[in-house]
Amino acid sequence: MEPQGVLCMGTHAKAFLILLFLTTTRCSSTGKSTAVSVTVGVFNDAATPRPVVEFAEQEASRIFMAAGLEITWVDCVARQENVPSASCPAPQGPTHLNLRILPRGKKVKEDSFGVAFLAADGTGTYIDVFYDAIEKFHHESHTSPGRLLGHVMAHEIGHLLIGSHAHSNWGIMCPVWSQRELRSLEMGSLFFYRESG
Fold it and tell me: Which of 87, 102, 158, 183 is 20 to 30 A from 126 (CA-CA)?
């Protein structure tokens, strides 16, 4: 799989409609919308402080809940090379994903925050986020590392749920976060948005 969706993104209207379809279902008996649940196994290979990871998970959950998607986080024990972790099952399609927090990426720009791995058909189940870049940005901008990590996690999960054309002109799926997105991030108002036109 080729790395896709190195943070920051922009999305086509069609891709956003796919996200809406994935995140909202209607109960035929009650007519009420219910949140769809996705499980994300988190491997903290960067030894990111637990309070930072917990805050990030809360932030990402809040962002997805606004779109009607409930995230269940599973703390996975780091695995030895080529040995599956007993604490987390293998990811299975769009309802169970794996996210790995690494110090840095091996084949991405130094300032990249994360990458989602998508197959040619736009599907995937694996995400890497790079804590060294997040921590560096935190020291330069005084942005909360937990809040930034949570938004990066939501952005990369968005790639897996929406597919190859997940980037948008604004909002959390913007490919490069401008001052506008960073202000929204700090205010807790950076979400998934529909494209206009």
Answer: 183
